[in-house]
Amino acid sequence: MGLLIDGRWHDQWYDTESNDGRFVRESAGFRNWVEARDDAAFTPEAGRYHLYVSLACPWAHRALILRKLKGLEKVIGLSVVDPYMGEYGWQFSDVEGAIPDPLYGLDYLHQLYQKAAPDYTGRVTTPTLWDTRHETIVSNESADIVRMFNSAFDALAEHPERDYYPEALRAEIDAVNERVYHDVNNGVYKAGFATAQDAYEEAFTAVFDTLDWLDERLGGQRYLAGSRVTEADWRLFVTLVRFDAVYYSHFKCNRRRISDYPHLAGYLRELYQVPGVADTVNMSHIKQHYYRSHPSVNPTGIVPVGPELDLDTPPNRDHLPADEIDA
Length: 327
Ligand SMILES: N[C@@H](CCC(=O)N[C@@H](CS)C(=O)NCC(=O)O)C(=O)O
Known about the structure:
- One of its GO terms (molecular function) is glutathione transferase activity.
- It comes from Salinisphaera hydrothermalis (strain C41B8).
- The chain has about 325 residues and is an alpha+beta fold.
- It has two domains: about 5-150, Glutaredoxin, CATH 3.40.30.10; about 165-275, Glutathione S-transferase Yfyf (Class Pi), Chain A, domain 2, CATH 1.20.1050.10.
- It has nine helices and seven strands; from the N terminus they run βββαβαβββααααααα.
- A four-stranded mixed β-sheet has the order 4-3-6-7, with helices on both faces. A three-stranded antiparallel β-sheet has the order 2-1-5, with no helix packed on it.
- The longest helix has 24 residues, at about 195-220.
- The model has no long low-confidence stretch (mean pLDDT about 95).
- Glutathione (GSH) binds next to helix 3.
């Protein structure tokens, strides 16, 4: 685990000491956009872009889900890093489920960042969207990549009709995302990486206050923004699907499991069972990554065998209205 400083790799853990034991996530370093405009620097083209992900990573997972559901697999290439993140950061390998770098045969993801910006300073994160034409990184911010995949490639997508950020629901989606991001998606990390008791408890409380709020909301409506699936659901899904296997124990978010919530449990199963989505969930990579790559949290690196998850049982949510769309 480390970062690039002036283009050179440094092996160092997150600095929580200068923030009173709090984990503070860094902003992404590359924030360009693929846009369907003739004068855009990055225009949508089949085969031009390549997505680097970790199947363990919830941020990468949301981009991967959009690539899948929009039908962009033939349009945007994919590499999957080894789940273990060691002293040189994310690495390529041929372990099961990994897909090595086909473009340059790289050993480490940080080498891609050095190619894009030889003097780059910042973290090397997944997902990373690469442009083979200009040989640079378009973006390493998953929230932006999700939006690009949702609409910029519609002329090439198998499912241009699927829209996960519909105009009429944007204000609602943005409001839900805001709370879910801080208190749940990033909230579990704030609990897990805290190095002070009060910082951990603060994050823990926010995680469960927000899960309680979400559970109640999902008792009265099928999805987060109403009767159709939107990006707000996929953004929450990636944290929920890791929760009982990883965040509950490894990150000490153990007031209750998702499977204990009356509505969140079925909601998680329903999203998991949307055609194509289960293919994007690799529980082995998820567990291998977290339990082995954070020695300060789990020094033995032992990966728990359980828990048994029941993601394939019926969601039982048909009593709540849903729009007639296939995903
Ligand atoms: N804001 C980024 C965060 C991505 C991120 O932090 N990814 C993690 C993996 S889950 C990572 O690559 N961490 C490596 C590091 O922080 O050095 C996004 O959403 O794309």
